[in-house]
Records
---
Amino acid sequence: MSLFTSLKVINSGKAILLYRKYGAPLRYHSTWLRDNALDSKTRDKNNGQRLISISDIPVNICIKSASIDVRDKSITLKFLPDKKEVKFSFKWLEVNAYDKKSNNSEIWINSNLKVWSNATMKNVPVINYKNAKSNKKLLLKWLKSLHRYGFAKMTGCEKKSGTVTKIAKLFGYVRETNYGKWFDVKSKTNAVNLAYTNLGLQAHTDNPYRDPVPTIQILHCIKKSTKGGDSKVVDGFNAALKLKKKNKKYFNLLSKYCSRFEFKGKKNVHLKSRFPMIGLAPDNELISIHFNNRSVAPIVDVPYKEMLNYYKAYRKFSDIINKPTMAVNFKLNPGDCFIVDNTRVLHARTPYRAKGSRWLQGCYADKDGLLSKISTLSKI
Ligand code: NM2
Ligand code: OGA
Ligand code: ZN
């Protein structure tokens, strides 16, 4: 943690400048500092939530005076026109610094994430179910890897129905859908979904026809005595970045225009959605992949003159996703499960023989729970 050494009020009190022992000085605006004051009149002592609203902050708020206490590692600010005195710790100021070089228009991803391919995914993050339940340190390490790679495995899970929800509860909450709290992935006749057959499934994200989509998917193997049905996962963010490198125009088409997705169940289920296959935040952060050949509905949001190029881009993206060099392949054995960030990592299976039995169970959960668990475990 670098230390602040001195402090200056600048722009007639509209901001402060904090000098650091290491690194360039950092600026903070008076409005921003007032809004984020940590005193008990601004934030509830009990729950930490903000008690004031933006309209409670005077438009002409400025800093009358500022002092630094290097021993206490804090600064104290006096505001005008409301005569408020507020203290901030060095640590808080550093963690919440925003005086960074402004982002240009480049595509970027969260710095906690690491993209991977077959060659670079050396060790798949894996944990034993018992360890995940009993060892918080190992659980935290594994959850961080799950977040970082968008993919992880678990071994030693009970080969019993419903276990998949116990796995979800290790780091979050089950998302119930029309498929139930959890679902059997078995080959059935008159299957309501192609996943419930013995056909192969191209790498895909689940349920793109749902809005919001489930952001975590867990698949757990209970039985397997058939040939085939091997698993494969692909980093969709890596595939998107590869597409961008190959053909920026294609990348732009898939991120600019929405595809449509749809699923019609037997009764009372008709899900429809509209998402770009490659999702970007307004500041060009790569945030989501929606890709599922079985569920793409007629795409009607691409103008006529762009549609053929859009299809070329879609084909190229699919080619990249299908490349063996992109995939991590594995066999899911009874007692194993794998978890994916369903907004990033695609999963696939090879076809399998009808003879013998294969029984997987799956369930959905969400990433907010995962991130919350990582945060709270990190503080222990
Ligand atoms: N199941 C397994 O998103 C999909 O339609 C893939 C999902 C039916 C819940 C299969
Ligand atoms: C699914 C799915 C993979 C498998 O059910 O969504 O992708 O191995 N299943 O059966
Ligand atoms: Zn799936």
Note: Residues 179, 183, 185, 193, 195, 206-207, 292, 295, 362 surround NM2 (ligand 1) (CB under 6 Å).
---
Amino acid sequence: MIDSCAYEAKPLLTVAEALARILAALAPIADTETVTLSAALGRVLAHPVTAQTNLPPERNAAMDGYAFAGADVSTDTAVTLQCVGTAWAGRPFQGMLQAGQCVRIFTGAVVPPQADSVVMQEQVRVDGAAVRVPPQPKPGQNVRQAGEDVRLGASLCADHTTLSPADLGLLAAAGVAQVAVVRPLRITFFSTGDELVGLGQALASGQIYDSNRYLLGGLLADPRYQVTDGGVLADDPGQLEAALLKAAATADVLITTGGASVGEADYIRALLAQRGQVAFWKLAMKPGKPLAFGTLAGCHFFGLPGNPLAVMATFRQLVQPGLHQLLGLPYQPPLRLLATCTSLLKKSPGRQEFQCGILSQAADGSLAVASAGLQGSHVLSTLHKANCYIVLPATCQGVQPGEAVWVEPFNVHS
Ligand code: AMP
Ligand code: MG
């Protein structure tokens, strides 16, 4: 049972503690589906795949050149071999190599059984069928051995890998035509707030455009998710209840933005306390203080703050790891790098901060980060300019130019 009692009196919850609670509460979905390899990019592999063939399947040439038996050449003098045919990629040499003979060979062509070495074409002198091979350092060079990439029966790809282009290439090389993947996570998201107006409509005084819908929609654009945009919900308890319960019937996860705080028009909290098992946390995090997490009518629920920068921060730090957990992906902390801060950063102690930064790399490889601008949780132009978070610990009291800080680049995918 999730504790959903009043949160005002409780101390702030750290991001790490909130994350631990989220990960502990979520069990991976078990449903799988089979897709062709061409539809598998970015999906989560459900079962391990082992190689049904050696990779490469046969010994082949790593270079364009001439193939011969190492015993026929010398390590200290040049030797002349007689060229008796050609091995093309896809068309092996059909004859039988005798001692003192070689074949012309191209990259990827099967090395004839009697040969074990290939010399680069640039290193030989050819005169008709006579091929003069300079002293060879060692036999066996420039030959790719069967199974040296992956052995028959060895693991090709572990289960719960999010399939990358490289993974697809490897699976295809081994002849894997289709794979079992975790079915997409069904996510429905809503914006909440009386002030929100959809694009294309004129703004009356007091109204703003619903930007979270696009920000959150963008963060959720991922082949692992099947996303439904639930639209805007008014600050109306009846409408919220009806819409969320209806969505819960078909979704695995509901995400709302706005209305999760303790204001007069923040009804999400009361609704969920009645209809779900939902905890309301005040996080020691900036931006992103209020967060609701739990279940509503059997559906996992994340109630995010309304301010756009808080949406992004809570999504990246807490929601995304939770969604990955539901897909069975092993938890991977975000990549963080040390960089020299070139700006003065203001900060009061108490909350871990995720300030928007612009990370750059100098010619010598060193990393520098500057503040991306005003750090208010509504300042979308700062987020637009930023390419990373500058992650400041709760105890930090500000940063002087020249100090080292941790940065979390935005565009590192997992
Ligand atoms: P709330 O959490 O509902 O109190 O909202 C906090 C702030 O975020 C308010 O200034 C809201 O107007 C703003 N906000 C809430 N939802 C959205 C949204 N979908 N797009 C842009 N701003 C929003
Ligand atoms: Mg609101």
Note: Residues 1-8 have pLDDT under 50 and may be disordered.
---
Amino acid sequence: MEPSDVQRGLEDVVALESRICFIDGQQGRLLYRGYDIRELASRSTFEEVAYLLWYSRLPSAGQLADLKRRMAELRVLPDALARTIDSLPSAALPMDVLRTAVSALALLEPEETKPGASSIGGAQRLTAVLPTILGWIQRRRSGARPVAARPDLSQAAYTLYALLDREPSELDARAMDVALILHADHELNASTFAARVTASTLSDLYSAITSAIGTLKGPLHGGANERVMELLAEIGTPDRAEEVVKAKLARHERIMGFGHRVYKVEDPRATILREWSRKVGEERGNLNDYALLRKVEEVVHREKGLYPNVDLYSGSVYSLLGIPHDLFTPLFASSRVAGWTAHVLEEYDDLRLIRPMAKYVGATDLTYVPIGGRT
Ligand code: ACO
């Protein structure tokens, strides 16, 4: 590539080496540290996956028990942070509150913000406390009692408990566990890249995660599943799917939950979540969203040749679990934080300031005109 060539959106640019996550976009394969996501989703738990991402190996039974104990201790929200969240506008978007909360936590936990030895502690702290922050955001607006740390619950069950103020059924907790596993990492996606850029300046872990949360917020990234639910509401019944989707495509609108920069076939996470959308829907006796999404898939594939991505079915699963739509993206963050922090630690270990170049296409020969002489 000539220095003057522009790769818009850094498409196909290989920016760094990593040992965390492998995507084969042609075959639809996704590996965390060498393990296939399909196997992890069917056999492991989020805590095991977080350990795998942070320490590059699956934990022994003792290591897993230690991690779970540690993370349960780290769930507790500092009073000062609870007060900070309470002081924010009540109508603020949960994703904005989450970003502010993580940034504020950095001020309250200065030791954890230092790169180096304390970073693994920071990774565990952030991953453990994010569901509590989400629970606080949700309960504050619904008037329910504050979140108890509940060290007896797994991360998935605790996440649902924190959000819904009730213990989930086994099926619901497993559905959440699978969703957390599937969202835990995805190579150099935009938010992970943002985290690594921040870390590459030797800034602290909490700042890197604050950057990542701001990046995940956008509808082309983490915000897509919320928009999928808006699309379903607009369509209403399967017989209207064809008409609504075709009209959108004719207006060159994007259909959320479809397409991917890396996958040229179906995203393997979508395949797994489709199954969970059906399973949880069947258990609830409500397959409405599932049926609508199947129809939308058929039309989008026929008309545009596009495949579903992870966001197509995640929203329908979360909805069935009773999670409000504006918490979908914060929930995504509460899982991806395991991957973000693993990437930040890898960046610290192999540090190289990330600083690409721009091709300047503006003027070069202007002469300064004093303000009185300008029109
Ligand atoms: N709906 C309609 N058309 C689409 C879609 C879509 N969802 N995705 C891509 N296309 C079309 C584009 O319009 C373009 O068509 P054209 O060549 O006729 O103009 C072509 O496919 C290529 O699209 P690009 O934007 O170049 O593809 P890119 O790799 O940049 O996009 C992206 C990837 C942003 C995810 C895109 O597919 C999209 O906007 N999808 C919808 C949003 C979404 O679901 N995001 C979640 C992604 S997964 C995640 O972040 C967790």
Note: The longest strand covers residues 21-24.
---
Amino acid sequence: MVQEFRLHKNDFVLPIFVHDQLESTPIAHLPGHQRVDAISLMAHCEHILTKGIRAIALFPVIDSDKKSPECDEAVNPDNLVCQVTRRIKKAFGDDIIVCGDIALDPYSSYGHDGIVKNGAIVNDDTLDILAKMACNQAAAGVDIVAPSDMMDGRVLAIRDALDNDGYHDTLIMAYTAKYASHLYGPFRDALASLPQFGDKKTYQMNYSNRYEAAIELDLDVAEGADIIMVKPATLYLDIISDFRASTPLPVAAYHVSGEYAMLHSAARDGYIDFSEALYESLTAIKRAGASIIVTYGALDIVDILQ
Ligand code: PBG
């Protein structure tokens, strides 16, 4: 009766990696997750629905021959994400909420989230491409576009483009405070998207900064974000808590690949109990103020909750 916070299955978004191959392949450092082929994806969606998870975040693994410096595949209206979204929406309609990733790293031969010119990531040249991507995904049926790229001004560019094309009902979940973290390794492995030069510190945030996140929050709210996100989650509870106190918008948190992988590896080595530590981690994220939690442990936690 006096417990303040409870986890609920509706809190969670499950990230899913999809690739354009005939069979699913395991991801080395992300136990329980695969690069899923398009056919198995449908069975997977059926499965997660029966478990009670209704929201997914799609991440495409793009074949290397389709990656390019210009990221042309990102704006192909028939690219992998658009194809599989159309299938999911045809089969499941609104039973499954699809979040589409907006960033160029899966499509870039440089592994960067923006367009690269003369060895630098060019903010403004990237915005049109992101906006086009968002419209393509909305046309395919994506419910929530989620810019994870951290270019400045992209929420406004996406909002304008969606409005112009008549996609008034598509939500924007902005990765508002996304830090240049060392916990993204398993994800980059899964996508083969390791940056080919430098790092992402010119566009992702410095993890030593707390107050700067307020600037990012003001911008994303003013530009029209519907949901704002903090990423990673468990090492960034102060930021989640700050956001909760500063905006009435829903606050999301991304419990990233490295956070999930650490729980698994420590449990495998006998240091901790996976289920208990996952439960505690996700509860801490919710207690800090996140009402939406993107986690690779979504299926594990609903089992535990049951
Ligand atoms: C890139 C992106 C990343 C993640 C989601 N989108 C990695 C990065 O910024 O390099 C990481 C998520 C995770 O580690 O689970 N747009």
Note: Residues 123-140 form the longest helix (18 residues).
